[in-house]
Amino acid sequence: MPPVGGTNGIPPAARGVRYVGTLRRDRIGDRRTGITAILGVYYSSPADDSADPFDCIPSSLSNHVYTMKTLTRRQFLGTSAMGFLALKANAIRPFASRFNAPLTFQYWVVREPMGTDLDGSLGRMREIGYDAMELCSPASYSQFVTYETTDPEDLRRRIEDAGLRCRSSHFTGDEVLGNNGDNVHSAIELAKKLRLHTMYISSAPFNEREATLDRWKQFADEAHAAGEAVQAAGLQLGYHNHIIGPEIDGKPQYDHLMDLLDPDLVKMQFQIGAGREGYDVVEYLKKYAGRFTSLHLSDFGSDRDGGVPVGNGILDWPELFEAARMSDIDEFGYIVEVGTEEPFEGVTKSYEYLSRLEL
To answer: Which of 48, 267, 281, 347 has a beta carbon 3.0–4.6 Å from 293's, enabling a disulfide?
Structure first.
């Protein structure tokens, strides 16, 4: 009999176990594990009650820890509707009341300690509670920052040894689009060695504040060509904005760019701090719902002069995350990017706020 009630494309157990399953987020020490979800109800032949219910969990989640309740078909049929609803409500309630997505930090904001003590700094970020790091490409950003190692495989191993994931990285515009588009191939090879999922162009290879609409059209064409090559390699290309304005022909340049870029070839990473220009970032998340795969998180004060730790400014974060859910944000797509004089201060305060935030 086909599965009944499955969600989010999660397949039934390969050997056909009969159960009602709940996948629940728990904590083990400081380690975040799992997500909150109702897996659904599955049926199979009565001969195989020994199948492992964990067979239904996608391999991409295999590094997390889960608890699952199982019922035989007889137990399921004997369960009252009220009891089932209570089970369901109990499973969902933690997700509905607290922000509990994995949190990522951006390498840039802790680049100084990372450049002199990589392993110690990675360990400290893990101790704070972060689950992942978004990198800045060691091939192109070495002109701006110091790296203890620029060898991608050594860098990946040390990130993983610290208990962190690295699913995305920033690449300069020239690193992806330069040399008439040929540079994208070396960027792809670097991304593969780092085992990335998404390559974000961190900015266009020209002065964005002075660019004409024709220059943005050229950029979109170049990004589409690169996006096709990146997708052919099994990866995804994205673009990270630093600003929303200025206006071109009476419309913010970011809106022009959203019109020009193919949403399948180039995903969007939204800079929440761009709201310092006076734009309503929550309305932008709603306006372009479905286009964003990650967010750079920072707050700002009423004077909109510089960024502050998340939760220490004027933004309504529950409202912002409600708007963000209208897009398919990547598993590690909530990325804290708060620069402070003491590098760890901003990321620590931001984590503390987000880890107790009720939605």
So the answer is: 267
What residues contact residue 72 under an 8 Å CB cut-off, 6+ apart?
Answer: 18, 49
Q: Strand pairing of 334-336 and 104-106?
A: parallel
Task: Summarize pLDDT for 39-49 with one digit per residue, the tens.
Answer: 333 333 344 44
Low-confidence winner among 65-79, 256-270, 307-321 (lowest mean pLDDT): 65-79
Query: Residues near 334 by Cβ (< 8 Å), separated by ≥ 6?
Result: 101, 102, 103, 104, 294, 295, 297, 354
Q: Is the peptide bond before 246 cis (omega within 30 degrees of 0)?
A: yes
State which H helix or E strand residue 77 sits in: helix 73-77
DSSP state of 47: T
Task: Encode burial over 110-149: b for 16+ CB neighbours within 10 A, e otherwise.
Answer: bbebbeeebeebbebbbebbbbbbbbbbbbbbeeeeebee
Q: Are 180 and 205 in contact (CB under 8 A)?
A: no
* 123-132 mean pLDDT: 98
Q: DSSP H helical segments within 173-290, as ranges?
A: 173-177, 183-194, 213-232, 253-260, 281-287
Question: pLDDT value at position 74?
Answer: 46
The amino acid present at 96, given as its one-letter code, is: A
Amino acid at 129: G
pLDDT at 97: 54
Q: Specify whether the CB–CB gap between 221 and 198 falls below 8 A.
A: no
Q: Mean pLDDT of all residues in the chain? A: 81
207 alpha-carbon distance from chain centroid: 27
Question: How many Å apart are CA 56 and CA 21, to the nearest integer?
Answer: 10
**Which has the minimum average pLDDT: 34-43, 51-60, 324-333?**
34-43
d(CA 137, CA 135): 6
